[in-house]
Amino acid sequence: MAKHMARKTLSGIALKLTLSAALLTSVSGLSAPAWAQDADANPDFFDLGQVVITARRTEEQLNEAPVAVTVVTDENLGSGRVDQVLDIAKTAPNVMAFDANGLGFVVRGVGSQAMQGLNSETGVGLFLDEVYMGRPDAAPVYLDDLERTEVVRGSQSTLYGRNTIGGAVNLVTREPGDVSAVETELSYGSNGYARARLAFDQPMGDGNWLTRGYLSYTKAPDGITNLATNQTDLPLTAISGRFTVVGDIGDATSLKFTIDSEKVDDDSMGRWAPLDLALNHQSNLDHSAYKRDRRGGAMLRIDHDFDAFYFSSITAYRKFSQDLVMDGDFSAGPYDPSVGFYALQQGREQEQWQFTQEFRLGSHAGSDLAPGEISWNAGLFYMYEDFDGLEFYELASVPRDMTSRDGLKATAQTYAAFGNISYQVSDALSVHAGARVTRETKSGDVEISSPAGTFVYGPAQSGSASTETTNFSPEAGFGYQLNDNTLVYGRFATGFKSGGIAQFFNADGSVNTYRPETSRTFELGLKTSLMDDRVSLGVNLFNTEWKDMQSNVFISDIQRVTANASSATSRGLELSLDAALSDELTFGATYGYLDARFDSFQYSFYSATTGSTQTVDYSGNAIPLSPKHSASLSLGWERELKNGLEAFANGTYSYRSEYTFDPVGAYKQAPTHLVDVAVGVRGGDWEASLWAKNLLDEKYLSNYFLMSGAHVGIASPGRTVGMTVSKTW
């Protein structure tokens, strides 16, 4: 039973450094006790089971992969109430997730320090079934119908490409089943939370072709009261769906086609407020915000098995659009719903589409090699992207087409070739090396206008620019098997985050362009299984240096640009533990220590307000969204009852120490303690549970910034309790 309900994540425990040192020095000499060596003959034997991942673009067992990765399987996605992409970070050490100008992750302090607004890219790549999502806003809100998620920590530019200097997040969807079935699920919770899910599996023909469809509806009120309008619990509503077909063409060729779509109408977006209100889930705004997101795409994958190697082709198209309006002055004026425009609003309209094509070749050997054998993979990648975006302010009753705005129309093309090879030197030692060459071109047109003469974004001007980048990203590493259950590995990796064009102008009137960020990472790790696979332990040490960091800097009192203004270093430790305590009880824990700081971040600008040149120096400051300590604990329990029933319960505790939201560090988020729990009962084809997210009703900010000396923020969701029932037909 523990195998069924185990978290199966490479999670870790907050052990002291002295304890981890003792484990490292003694683990190679550990042997199974006598009671465990007769496991095959013991009918009561239990273990953690095995998890297969594809984090290195090949199938391998989690404990045998020389890379730092946290996995959450479908069992935990459902029973653990891990239903939003932001929830992934809760049990991953040194990982933070945020929703500001789109979904983003910060891994080991690496993410996106420049909140460019339009056309922004992040340093942690998000992939849906191995298809790269080019913009953070294009990511789905909910984790619908997934088999597992993989959070790969550390630079992954060789196999994953650009914009993965911090790592990569893989969302792996469920494959169609070979038996006809219909799955239904209903959830209802506090504040009017509601969620409905429907899925089906249907074989076709003689069973060589399988289909799966999925549809979900979610209504999630924000729990915030607007004191100016007396509105409360404004909802986010989301409708998402996916359809998948898989099948064989002959004996050696398989095909997979998916199409997906998500529609999100968020009336709770942008509830900024002074901190004394925000932290009490209140706001005081004279304008109700909204955000309308539409995203989706299609993917065709073809795999062919040759005698000596395999071939894969992944062709994909994705599109995203957004219309956003929010209160621009974060204050309450006279509220009159009959008035079309209020004192000050700000908004954004953007649309992006992309086409990607990837070809891969690789050996069949995988990671299970004999001495003298090699495994390899290589490929080509192409991406075309088109972006059209606009930011605007609306003042008083001035029509939108007369207000201050900045706009960007841009295109980008990326070509890349990559390869990786592993060589088994001996029974214990393996080495690997790889590299990726990327050629990227971008062009764009930028315009700032204001027919009414209110130049919020600076003086009216327009211009065009283009950039070209060639990058070579190598990596190398080793794995050494101390014994059958213990792997020590080391890794050196480089990476880059794309440069580009922002919707700003430099002081000389030229269009604002910026260079790529580059990074290099050294990592040393250990993975071991103890007590006949009842305990899984992992330790990672890492050091990342990156330069030419893209940061927002001011060139006047109101004008900002994106510049390569800073360099930084991130170093730390990650510990992980999973344990099957009995055939009914499993335990998991994670701990991360992180020291991520700017080495150099200084710039100057002329202030018309003071009549002097202002110098800003953030050198030595902590990198935003990089808490020094992160930890999690999880516990799962199952017990068989009479009449074929089974009771279950699980809980997760997530901790983050103090952290900041910007390089200034003017506001420090106090440590957070989040608890999620669920308890229920299941039969053969049904399940019912009661659950709570943020059980302790922890009050903390999801976003913050300093505006004209005022601290404003948005609160994260408070406690939500509810129930879920599901049945398979």
UniProtKB/TrEMBL annotation:
Cellular component GO terms held in the UniProt record: cell outer membrane
Membrane topology: Multi-pass membrane protein
Protein name: TonB-dependent receptor
Record's signal peptide: 1-36
Organism encoding this protein: Aliiroseovarius halocynthiae
Compartments it resides in: Cell outer membrane
Upper lineage: Bacteria, Pseudomonadati, Pseudomonadota, Alphaproteobacteria, Rhodobacterales
Keywords: Cell outer membrane, Ion transport, Iron, Iron transport, Membrane, Receptor, Signal, TonB box, Transmembrane, Transmembrane beta strand, Transport
Domain TonB-dependent receptor plug per the UniProt entry, residue ranges: 62-168
InterPro entries: Beta-barrel_TonB, Beta-barrel_TonB_sf, Plug_dom, TonB-dep_rcpt-like
Major localization class: membrane
The organism's place on the tree of life at top rank: Bacteria
